[in-house]
Write a structure and sequence with these properties.
heterodimer, A: alpha/beta, 5-stranded parallel sheet, 6 helices, globular, B: 5-stranded parallel sheet, 4-stranded parallel sheet, 22 helices, 11 strands
């Protein structure tokens, strides 16, 4: 079953769908909840994973929910292990094209390494809420005017 | 999800509010404190209702305890950081545990992958605790342990480390965070459902009341509630409501309030709004004293005293221009001191990016030392007492917090309010409001939405790196332990633990025996999960 084929009809005909995911064992949900609400207020559909998801569960949810973007929040320091695993599981499920963004306490070198591995954006502490929303929108609708 | 107004109501020109949204006048005068009765509402420092502090001499008698939270990597690294901090003048230890430990997973559990030793030290068994406290005589330090879900197990481990050093439990001093209610509300590191978790808290209080007279059994914590985005009023209200819940659970067990209440302690956040924070600390003391004396009839003055630890607000730190964080931390620490804290952790400037390096942790400690020994603010107790503004704000914090507490009680108490998602929603609402104020520029964050510099001008801050091989070593060590210990003794101890939990007995003696047998944390937690079940939060936004 092709996930991409399922992502019909034309992108602009339905709201952007985002999976807001907490991966790993940290229970910090302040950031993800704020982002989820900001995305909803911007007209997107947000699916919140709930806490303590494994990389496998996050990837499966992304496919099941047919989302346009996966937004991962992680503040535990385990990003170098868990985020690449999410990317790997997405690829295995044929959804390697779904853009993944990450937010949390990610040191700059780690952010660069995650980007090299396929993460599209990394948002650190203090990232601007409006900029995050716009960035997710443009990843979901690459052709749409900014 | 509750409807969000499309536009926040910004302050009108000339109108000012505290960080929590309380409206402020341009100045305060006698009319604002006309109802204030000195003896009834303030009292001298050291006198009921302790608005002005719990000690008559406050810091002139004894400075607050400078207690920097530390713990990362292996037990040896944490042990080395402790020796370093003690040599640099720190007076109390504070252990941070890693996430698998907080959630009751051993380091070799599949869910622990990538998390071992990251946010704190990994503890799988007594062997790790023995290494953490190597060369540190437990009768000469006081140790705070930030642990909640498996708090009873870590307390048992600490007691057994003491036994092995020849220090009896009576001589152990320290604090167990052990505040499970705020986990469901804010920090979200829970294991069992709220009711058996509360029962475990009462078990530890009952045990410590008998055997550990110098031990603070619960550190009732507003810190994490605030970090999750609450206002100062919510922090105050929800924390006291949690405290009242523990008190009532202990009374239901048949414990004497004047034996356990003196060992309850509190833990607050010190955030950016200087006077609001000071008012919060003062209101907290007065409210708790009145609850204990008037509602529960406590007669021991020590039962009335709200003693607290403070940590500066981690969530106020910025990754941009991180050196500015030193200034934020200084102001927050000063508020905590003027608010009468008993102990203090000052955050390091690099904590928006990672765990602090040793140098950053030392600068944070130096910040406290300057306040204590150079600024002169420690010379007089409650120097702001009687300020029209501070007293009016203290009253307002109390009024608003009381309204929340009454609402929670009308809902059936804290656990009912958690199950209905009320407390979580209130906090999420406040967090969202705050973030939108930052996004709109209405709320200034220096270096983030004002006075910014190009990223190229940012000086790189050295980052503490955790050895990536640490996890493998910890797992290897755990597996060696499993091979070398007496498995029969472990199995018997765990069986006894399960039976005690099923009978509803106090599990502490059974945990002590399992710890002595080198049962792992994961094994003990799993045993209790089989009896108590596990909690999972309804994922609501």
């Amino acid at each position: 079953m092709s996930v991409a084929a399922e992502r019909a009809p034309a992108p602009s005909a339905r709201p952007i769908r985002v999976l807001a995911a907490k991966v790993g064992l940290d229970g910090h949900d302040r950031g993800i909840k704020v982002i989820a609400r900001a995305l909803r207020d911007a007209g997107m559909e947000v699916i919140y994973s709930g806490l303590f998801r494994t990389p496998e569960e996050v990837a499966a949810m992304a496919v099941d929910e047919d989302v346009d973007v996966v937004a991962i929040s992680i503040l535990s320091g385990a990003h170098n292990t868990l985020v690449p695993e999410v990317l790997g599981h997405l690829r295995r499920l044929g959804a390697g094209d779904v853009p993944v963004v990450v937010g949390g306490t990610i040191p700059p070198e780690d952010a660069a390494s995650l980007i090299r591995q396929g993460v599209r954006r990394v948002f650190g502490p203090g990232a601007d809420l409006g900029a995050i929303v716009e960035s997710i929108r443009s990843l979901a609708r690459p052709s749409a005017p900014a | 999800m509750a409807a969000v107004p499309a536009r926040l109501e910004g302050p009108r020109a000339g109108e000012a509010r505290t960080l929590s949204g309380l409206p402020l006048k341009t100045f305060y005068g006698p009319d604002d404190v006309a109802d204030l009765d000195y003896a009834r509402d303030l009292g001298d420092p050291g006198s009921y209702p302790f608005t002005r502090g719990i000690h008559g001499t406050m810091y002139r008698g004894r400075l607050w305890t400078m207690r920097q939270f530390a713990g990362y990597g292996t037990a040896e690294e944490t042990n080395a950081r402790f020796h370093y901090l003690l040599e640099n003048g720190q007076t109390g230890l504070s252990v941070a545990f890693d996430l698998p430990t907080l959630l009751g997973y051993d380091s070799d559990h599949p869910r622990a992958r990538g998390e071992v030793g990251r946010e704190g030290v990994a503890v799988d068994s007594l062997a790790d605790m023995e290494r953490i406290f190597q060369g540190i005589p437990l009768d000469q330090v006081s140790t705070s342990m930030t642990i909640n879900g498996p708090a009873a197990i870590l307390m048992a481990m600490y007691v057994v480390v003491g036994e092995k050093q020849g220090v009896p439990p009576e001589r152990l001093s320290g604090t167990l965070q052990n505040d499970i209610l705020k986990e469901y509300i804010a920090q979200k590191e829970f294991i069992f459902p709220p009711e058996p978790s509360l029962k475990l808290v009462v078990d530890t209080i009952e045990f410590a009341t008998e055997h550990m007279p110098r031990w603070n059994t619960v550190s009732i914590s507003g810190y994490h509630i605030r970090e999750a985005g609450s206002t100062a009023v919510q922090e105050l209200a929800f924390t006291l409501a949690d405290g009242l819940t523990y008190v009532e659970a202990c009374l239901a067990r048949g414990l004497d309030i004047d034996r356990f209440a003196p060992r309850l302690s509190f833990f607050f956040n010190s955030h950016l709004d200087f006077f609001e924070e000071i008012a919060k600390f003062r209101a907290a003391r007065r409210m708790w004293a009145r609850f204990m004396r008037e509602r529960y009839g406590a007669r021991n003055p020590r039962s009335w005293m709200l003693r607290f630890h403070t940590q500066t607000a981690g969530c106020s730190l910025t990754a941009q221009q991180p050196e500015v964080n030193v200034v934020r931390v200084t102001l927050q620490a000063l508020a905590a001191v003027l608010g009468g804290t008993q102990s203090l952790h000052t955050n390091a400037l690099d904590e928006a990016l990672s765990l602090p390096t040793a140098e950053a942790a030392r600068l944070a400690l130096r910040t406290q030392q300057v306040i204590a020994e150079e600024s002169g603010v420690a010379n007089v107790a409650d120097p702001l007492g009687g300020s029209y503004f501070v007293e009016a704000l203290t009253d307002e914090m109390e009024r608003q917090a009381m309204a929340y507490i009454e609402r929670i009680e009308a809902m059936g108490g804290v656990i009912a309010a958690i199950r209905q998602g009320f407390l979580q929603r209130e906090i999420a609402e406040a967090a969202y409001r705050y973030q939108r104020e930052v996004a709109s520029g209405e709320r200034v964050v220096v270096g983030v939405n004002k006075y910014t510099i190009p990223p190229s001008e940012e000086r790189p801050v050295p980052i503490l790196r955790i050895d990536p091989d640490l996890e493998r070593k910890q797992v290897q060590r755990l597996q060696e332990l499993r091979r070398s210990r007496d498995d029969g003794r472990v199995r018997r101890a765990l069986t006894e633990l399960r039976r005690a939990a099923q009978r509803g007995d106090n599990v502490m003696p059974y945990l002590l025996e399992a710890v002595r047998a080198y049962a792992t944390l994961g094994e003990m937690v799993q045993t209790l999960k089989e009896v108590y079940g596990v909690y999972s939060e309804e994922a609501v936004l």
